[in-house]
Amino acid sequence: MEANTVHPAETTVLAPACSVGDEEDSRLEGVALEAWRSFLQSHATILRLLDAELASEHAITTRDYEVLLYLAQAPDRRLPMSALAESTMLTRSGITRLVDGLVAGGFIERTSCASDARVSYAALTDEGLAKLRSAGCTHVGSIRRLFLEHFTPEETSRLASLLGRLPGAQRGGACTAE
Amino acid sequence: MEANTVHPAETTVLAPACSVGDEEDSRLEGVALEAWRSFLQSHATILRLLDAELASEHAITTRDYEVLLYLAQAPDRRLPMSALAESTMLTRSGITRLVDGLVAGGFIERTSCASDARVSYAALTDEGLAKLRSAGCTHVGSIRRLFLEHFTPEETSRLASLLGRLPGAQRGGACTAE
DNA sequence: CAAGTGCCGTTGACCGGTCAACTATAATTT
DNA sequence: AAATTATAGTTGACCGGTCAACGGCACTTG
């Protein structure tokens, strides 16, 4: 029937390896190329699958999930918009619109801040929490299947230590870090 | 002045680790969490930087670059739109529009196929090739700096072998692979 | 060779996200 | 206290990409 919809993605990719010209070192060689390509393509593929599953089984986006999760972990289950923006690495306007959607879905409410009238909190509703819980199972399962399952525990730890050196890898995200 | 534009990204992120509820295994623990988080966040961060550099120094996108590169490596420096779509992991319509842009920029021409009137080739122009070459230096340099430089050769190779197991990592992309 | 079937590329409608401009509030300077 | 500057959030315009529908062409199959 179909299956003609080639999955999209945000790949990118690398650099010559053959003979565009055969000049300088503007090329990536062997194993370095492999590493880089695998990095890009696996990311694209995994995220795509993750998103598809979450969308089809829970009608939310990976981003939605992420926001719900951050809120669930936050004290009082609420966070200022800016905090959300920073955590998710979206712009403030991006978060505004994303939260708009979640509010419309009933997963989040906007509440105002007593001590600073500029800030508006995004607060997780009970339905939001329920959604997160139900989606969580699926999602974590998928992450295991698509990512973690390919490694032994030691490998996972080695991988973590390698990837952990890359730019951006160390920005927050943990439980009570910040 | 500013620097208030928090860099955006397509992160996602993981799963609880604290105490959303303290139920089942719908959580990611320790080192697995680290690996997954690093994977997501480093990707987001690196691609963002890469894109910014390419945009500011060469006025093209990472995707543009990718397409140019694929064409440069192709026999006769041209490829059918569908082939491009597959390589880049974009949809056919996505490629149409992307190529539109590159044609407008003079980097690509559309030519038709003698043996099959349905296909239209995207063919690299000389300017396109020049663009690729000049951008290539910057780009590959950035990849080295942002990614490769964080690893010794053995580490790179180990990383390649780990990432190489992930879904999507083995799809084509090499020189004369197909 | 006429009719079905399927593939190629483009287009329209939409969506998620950015950027830049703006409003309202807070904090700082004078 | 008034003026300045900075911060929080929203909005409008736009962009890159998807999806679904379509038109042109090629390949069966009657």
Verbal overview:
Chain A has 178 residues and is mostly helical. Chain A has a domain at 30-151: Arc Repressor Mutant, subunit A, CATH 1.10.10.10. Chain A contains six helices and three strands. The first copy, chain A, has helices spanning 30-58, 62-73, 81-88, 92-104, 126-146, 153-163; strands spanning 78-80, 108-112, 120-124. Chain A has a three-stranded antiparallel beta sheet with strand order 1-3-2. In chain A, strand 2 (108-112) and strand 3 form a beta hairpin. In chain A, helix 3 (81-88) crosses helix 4 (92-104). The first copy, chain A, is globular, with a radius of gyration of 20 Å. Chain A starts with 29 loop residues before the first helix and ends in a 15-residue tail after the last helix. The model of chain A is unreliable at 1-24 and 173-178 (pLDDT under 50). Chains A and B meet through helix 1, helix 2, helix 3, helix 5 and helix 6 of A and helix 1, helix 2, helix 3, helix 5 and helix 6 of B. Chain A binds a DNA duplex (30 and 30 nucleotides) through residues 4-5, 8, 10, 61, 63, 80-82, 90-98, 101, 116-120.
If you consult CATH, what is the topology of the domain at 30-151 in chain A?
Arc Repressor Mutant, subunit A
Residue stretches of chain A low in confidence (pLDDT < 50, at least 5 long) are 1-24, 173-178
CATH class category label of the domain at 30-151 in chain A: Mainly Alpha
Round the Cα radius of gyration of chain A to an integer and report it. Answer: 20 Å
Question: How would you briefly describe this protein structure?
Answer:
The structure is a homodimer. The first copy, chain A, has about 180 residues and is mainly alpha-helical.
